[in-house]
Design goal:
The chain is 43% helix and 17% strand. Strands 16-17-15-14-19-22-23 form a 7-stranded mixed sheet.
Length: 807
């Protein structure tokens, strides 16, 4: 093998043969040796290595030895960081070496070429300065296995592994394989390979320390196997990396070519792509969304702008860019200002206003929270939808409204898959995009009017939208990635909450909006409806004036509703009268009187819910709840010769059952009511509820039916201006019912003075402001006997029936 750094006259140093090894083995180790410490290598017998001497002690040692017999001892350091090692810093076993050549390098260092001869053990220290000198001890080596067939097999394996490693490691020169093939000596081959293995100094020193030749060979074979596996793994990794790099370079080249071709075909194509990239840099989206956008943008780049799919892909990317990812409007935390805005725009609605102020208060303290999902339900015209505008203004948020009435296609909520031409995102995502922020006030109007068809069930799709645990990752079929709706303030509106599926109801915070009282309607008309109509018709408040008395007359005589839509229409007609008079230059009185109202609005047809006094037995005023608010109804009973009971008036099953319960209870307790039991077999009773074209049902007319039947069987008078509502049982108990506020408002409109309610409904009455209850007397009962005692007078009606068996 040749050595680097030799001058032109240097000779080749031949590989050690078996004969050379035998001669060296017979040589005697000197009794004393100068010790040259090696920092990061181990010298093995027979191996030639170059050593750069940097320490002054090492340079002095080499000079003295070169001038003498050129024999030194080479021992590895335990710690290469030690600059001036002592004998304790060296390993115990080293190698006797012969100096072959000394070279002066251009940088001033001295390089010495050494060849190892025999192992030895370091003995006693003889001198420290100018370099270490010690006695030597013979290293006893077990060479008994040298001619063993097993040892020869191990050596062959070592040779094969070494050649494989040379093939795998590009850093090793190909000449090394020739050297290994030409080494005859088994022990020298072992030492040569051990010296050139990529191992740390302590691991090499273990091989040098091993006295048993066979064991040393096995250790070397194990090290070779580990080295081979490491190189194979490294080569595999490099191969994969190189393959990926080649693929990336190829794709880049193809993309550049494709870009050039598409620019030629599509003109401004490149500008579009760059515009999308610039807009994408400004978006506040997550890593997941950014990766999705890059992927879809790459797909767009590979498309021909002339194909139909290009516009679909472009529209999709435009949507991703236009959506306000993680963009939120700043909430206004001035609670007093918010309260003023809500009070300014809407009268009453205390529960809703309180809930919005509570939400603002929590946001102000905590800084961040999921928005509540509210559902405002109540009769039409009470301001459920318009309340959304006020809430948005109070919070300082954008306003979005989505009408759900008659919606039958699930895709309206979730969108269509973008693979179809003309596909669009759902209306939820479109609303968010139009709002420009991810936390608007979103009105879901008429949620109880959602339909269902073969195209899916929109109410089921709304379950994800209105679930705070799910809407953080709302999945739109068109968008294909989750969008966070948790900061959106959803406000749903409904007239009949029972038409909303129970699973959807369970996800919302239900707030009931009841009808307005007469006083509230007057205030709404004065502050909102009249100014609004004057403005819409181009008039001022000087052109038309309506006093409280006139507004009360319009409300009382021309409207019958819980809300104010009908009232607004009547006011609009009055404003149009003023506008026509001004346009035609006709004289009119801007301050309208009652007579003017009658002339403009015509005769009132809204008198049927007024109380009607009756001197006939068996006519009782009941209270009912309808979708338009509260109403009064009359329960009429009459008896005639015969047997049994008949019921008319388009009544539902529950109401018919109430009549049956009332009659059976009276039969069972006839003595308590002063009724002769014979009357039940001698007379047939007929119950009727007027307005037969209107379906009626529910248990709340129970006590009214009971009172009507007792009155007709006893022919006793019923107290005037009295109304009642409550469910009855066979045990004689009175149970609570719903819709109390609407029923009380209906009673006030009908000029009722006294009301009989279940004791448990007292809490509902206490929630109503006392000023709205003025002029009403409430009787709270728990037993049906108490109802009879309050409602029936002792005196008989005029022309009372005289039963035959009373004679």
């Amino acid at each position: 093998m040749s050595l680097d750094n030799l001058d032109e006259n240097s000779e080749f140093i031949p590989l050690m043969s078996s004969k050379d090894e035998e001669e060296i083995h017979k040589e005697k180790i000197p009794d004393e040796l100068a010790i040259l410490p090696l920092r990061n290598s181990v010298l093995f017998p027979g191996v030639v290595i170059p050593i750069t001497a940097g320490r002054d002690s090492s340079i002095a040692l080499i000079k003295d030895a070169n001038n003498g017999d050129k024999i030194i001892g080479v021992v590895a350091q335990k710690n290469e960081a030690v600059e001036d090692p002592s004998i304790t810093d060296l390993y115990e076993v080293g190698t006797v070496a012969k100096i072959l050549k000394i070279l002066k390098m251009p940088d001033g260092n001295t390089t010495v070429i050494l060849q190892g001869t025999k192992r030895f053990r370091v003995g006693e220290l003889l001198q420290k300065e100018p370099y270490i000198k010690t006695t030597t001890q013979v290293f006893k080596e077990d060479r008994s296995a040298i001619n063993n067939p097993e040892f020869e097999a191990i050596i062959d394996s070592i040779r094969e592994k070494s050649l494989e490693i040379i093939q795998l490691n590009p850093a090793l020169p190909s000449e090394a394989s020739f050297a290994i093939k030409n080494i005859e000596s088994k022990t020298f081959l072992l030492n040569f390979i051990s010296s050139n293995l990529d191992m740390e100094v302590p691991d090499k020193q273990v091989l040098l320390d091993e006295p048993d030749l066979k064991e040393r060979a096995l250790l070397t074979l194990k090290k070779l196997e580990v080295e081979k596996q490491r190189l194979e793994l490294k080569q595999d990794i490099q191969s994969k990396t190189r393959s990926d790099m080649d693929k990336q370079q190829r794709e880049y080249y193809l993309h550049q070519q494709l870009k050039t071709i598409q620019e030629e075909l599509g003109g401004a194509y490149g500008e579009e792509i760059e515009e999308l990239k610039e807009k994408a840099k400004k978006k506040k989206w997550s890593k997941e969304i950014a990766e999705k956008f890059e992927k879809e943008l790459g797909r767009l780049q590979r498309m021909n702008p002339q194909v139909a799919e290009y516009s679909v892909q472009r529209n999709y990317l435009d949507l991703m860019i236009e959506l306000p990812w993680n963009t939120y409007s700043q909430d206004k935390f001035d609670l007093k200002r918010a309260q003023k805005i809500l009070d300014r725009d809407h009268s009453g609605m205390e529960k809703v206003k309180e809930r919005i102020i509570e939400h603002l208060a929590v946001l102000k303290i905590k800084g961040d929270m999921k928005s509540p999902i509210l559902c405002l339900y109540g009769p039409p015209g009470v301001g459920k939808t318009s309340l959304g505008h006020s809430i948005a203004e109070a919070l300082g948020r954008k306003y979005v409204r989505m009408s759900l009435g008659g919606l039958r296609d699930e895709a309206e909520i979730r969108g269509h898959r973008k693979t179809y031409i003309g596909a669009m995102p759902g209306r939820i995502i479109q609303g968010i995009k139009n709002a420009g922020t991810s936390n608007p006030v979103f009105i879901l109007d008429e949620i109880d009017k959602l339909g269902k068809s073969h195209q899916g069930d929109p109410s089921s799709a709304m379950l994800e939208v209105l679930d705070p645990e799910q809407n953080t990752k709302f999945h739109d079929n068109y968008l294909e990635v989750g969008y966070d709706l948790s900061k959106v303030l959803f406000i749903a509106t409904a007239n009949n909450i029972w038409d909303v599926p129970w699973a959807l109801r369970d996800r919302m915070e239900l707030i009931q909006l009841t009808g307005y009282t007469l006083q509230e309607k007057v205030e709404i008309a004065r502050k909102h409806l009249l100014p609004k109509q004057l403005k819409e018709h181009g008039l001022t408040n000087r052109d038309l004036k309506l006093g409280r008395k006139q507004l009360e007359l319009v409300i009382d005589s021309y409207t019958r509703e819980s809300g104010v839509r009908g009232l607004e229409k009547r006011i609009a007609k009055l404003v149009r009268f003023a506008a026509k008079s001004i346009a035609m230059e006709e004289p009119y009185n801007p301050a309208l009187t009652n007579e003017d109202l009658l002339r403009i609005l015509g005769v009132s047809h809204m008198g049927r819910d007024k109380y009607e006094k009756s001197d006939v037995a068996g006519v009782v005023t009941g209270l009912a709840w309808t979708q338009t608010g509260g109403d009064i109804l009359y329960i009429e009973s009459i008896i005639s010769k015969g047997k049994g009971m008949s019921i008319t008036g388009n009544l539902g099953n529950v109401m018919k059952e109430s009549a049956t319960i009332a009659l059976e209870y009276i039969k069972a307790n006839a003595a308590n009511f002063g009724i002769n039991p014979k009357v039940f077999n001698a007379y047939k009773v007929h119950i009727h509820v007027p307005e037969g074209a209107t379906p009626k049902d529910g248990p709340s007319a129970g006590i009214a039916m009971l009172t009507s039947l007792v009155s007709v069987f006893t022919q006793r008078k019923i107290k005037t201006r009295l109304a009642m509502t409550g469910e009855i049982t066979l045990r004689g108990k009175v149970l609570p019912v719903g819709g109390i506020k609407e029923k009380i408002l209906a009673a006030k409109r009908a000029n009722i003075k006294e009301l009989i309610l279940c004791k448990e409904n007292q809490k509902d009455v206490e929630e109503i402001k006392s000023k709205y209850l003025k002029g009403l007397t409430f009787h709270y009962v728990t037993e049906m006997s108490e109802v009879i005692e309050i409602a029936l007078l002792k005196q008989k009606v005029k022309h009372a029936i005289r039963f035959d068996f009373d004679k």
